[in-house]
Each structure stands twice: as structure tokens, then as C-alpha cells.
Design a protein that fits this description.
globular; alpha+beta; 264 residues
Length: 264
């Protein structure tokens, strides 16, 4: 996601920025107990394996799996094979793990027939973090979870119908639009107490360590907080500075020496 010349990577950071910059549409909880559950669900989905197992359950008959470019892109991103034969091999294991995720929600949070995760009138950020893929087990096995999924899908469709019309841009058009804008976020600070001991303006590189780890972003360190790292680099088209934002969770940040290599 880009806002001006600030590029935000990873859905967790994107959600945080949307909550921060558009408070009138805020979906996050306000009470400490609810915020805690919201954060636990966020960590559960990504670090607990829900997202990974859901990706392993992509149907092998999906048309995109016949596209070599798409398959290579996914293999480069995840670091694993996306061949149909390998998807079929890992499917039983993924189903076993996904069944545990469904059972957890069915027997705990949704056991009291509440409509939404936080027992609210409308879906919240917790429902987004806790969302599970439909069409796996069926309503007979997990009626509470599937009733919740149905409500979530209807709420999503309603939101899409009332949303503003989206203007679609091709790659070069999008880059031009972004690089002609101003920065959305002011330059931040580098935490001098951060364990990494990095300095503002230092050349660093940052990359995810859970997936997408074959690509690294490199630039000057603009900001480093408990929540995010911000790098300044130049767009290949337009040659204007842009700021790339990564979350701290599951991202590695290292200083780059004069030869372009990473320093441990």
C-alpha cells in the first residue's frame, strides 16, 4: 500500500496505518482486554500457522496453477514448491492443522453464539485477523465458525458495494503517481535504545524471514521504532526518493558495509 511516497509493506503494518490515518473508519478495539485478544489473533494467524496452512490448501485445480509465471512468483516468495503434486502431498497435513484452528474458535470464542469475535454489533479488526478460509470442512462440523464466516462474507460484500469506485493503474502509471506525490509521514527517529544499535542515515537492508525472504529492500535508515523500520531509497522510474516501511515482527534488519554486504 502506498500513501504519497510512503510504501507500506505487510498486511499487519498496512492495517495499523489505515487505523492511524483514517480514525473515522477505525475498526480496532478500544478496551485493553479487547485489544489483547485482537493482537493475539493477529499473531495466531501469521505466527501460529493459520496463513501458512491456508495457502497449502489452495485447490490444485485452480487455473493460476497452470500459469508458470505465477507459480514461479509464488515459489520465489514462499521458498517452497507450488507444483500440483507437492500441493496434493501436503494437503492432508494442512487439513489436520486447519481443523485445530476451526475447533479452537468453535469451542471457545464462538461457543456462546456471539455474532462477532469481540461480541460487538459490527465486525471489527479482530474478525479480520481471525478470518478463516471457507469451503474446507462444512457447516455440519463447525456450525458456529461457518455462521460467523457467512456473516463476515455478507458484511464484506456490503462494504464493497458502498465503497468508492476504485481507479486502476498499470505499473508505470502507479509509479509516476506515487513519485509525484509528497511524503505522507514525516521523518521519524531511530530509537537509540534499540538492541540493533543502528544509526539514522546508516545504510541498511530489511527483509521478511517467514516468507518473501528472497527479496531484500536496501536504503538509508530513516526511522526505527518498536513497530516499524523505514528505509529511504530511490524509485527506478522517476528517480525520486521513496520511503519503504516494514514491520518489526518477522523482519530482519542489518547494516550494509561499503562492499554492499550485510554486517551481522
Amino acid at each position: 500500500m502506498s500513501i504519497g511516497r510512503d510504501i507500506y509493506c505487510d498486511s499487519r503494518l498496512i492495517l495499523e496505518k489505515l487505523e492511524e490515518k483514517f480514525p473515522s473508519g477505525k475498526l480496532g478495539a478500544s478496551q485493553p482486554e479487547q485489544r489483547a485478544l485482537e493482537k493475539v489473533l493477529e499473531q495466531w494467524t501469521i505466527n501460529g500457522g493459520v496463513f501458512k496452512r491456508a495457502a497449502q490448501l489452495i485447490p490444485p485445480e485452480m487455473p493460476l496453477l497452470n500459469d508458470p509465471k505465477w507459480v514461479k512468483d509464488r515459489e520465489d516468495y514462499t521458498g517452497r514448491s507450488w507444483a500440483k503434486s507437492d500441493i496434493n502431498k501436503t494437503r492432508p497435513e494442512a487439513l489436520a492443522h486447519m481443523r485445530e484452528f476451526f475447533e479452537l474458535l468453535e469451542s471457545t470464542i464462538l461457543a456462546d453464539d456471539r455474532h462477532w469475535i469481540l461480541n460487538t454489533e459490527k465486525p471489527t479488526l479482530a474478525d479480520i485477523h481471525g478470518a478463516l478460509p471457507p469451503s474446507i470442512f462444512g457447516k455440519d462440523h463447525f456450525p458456529g465458525v461457518y455462521s460467523w464466516i457467512d456473516r463476515f462474507q455478507k458484511a464484506l460484500e456490503s462494504a464493497e458495494e458502498s465503497a468508492l469506485k476504485v481507479t486502476r493503474l498499470k505499473g508505470a502509471e502507479a509509479v509516476k503517481f506515487i513519485t509525484q506525490a509528497e511524503f505522507a509521514d514525516p521523518d521519524g527517529n531511530v530509537d537509540d535504545k534499540d538492541p540493533l544499535g543502528l544509526k539514522k542515515g546508516q545504510d541498511v537492508e530489511s527483509w521478511p524471514i517467514d516468507s518473501g525472504f528472497t527479496h531484500r529492500d536496501r536504503g538509508q535508515l530513516v526511522a526505527l521504532t518498536r513497530q516499524e523500520v523505514v528505509l529511504k531509497t530511490q524509485a527506478k522510474l522517476g528517480h525520486r526518493d521513496i520511503h519503504i516501511h516494514h514491520p518489526r515482527t518477522n523482519f530482519r534488519i542489518r547494516a550494509v558495509d561499503d562492499d554492499g554486504g550485510s554486517k551481522l
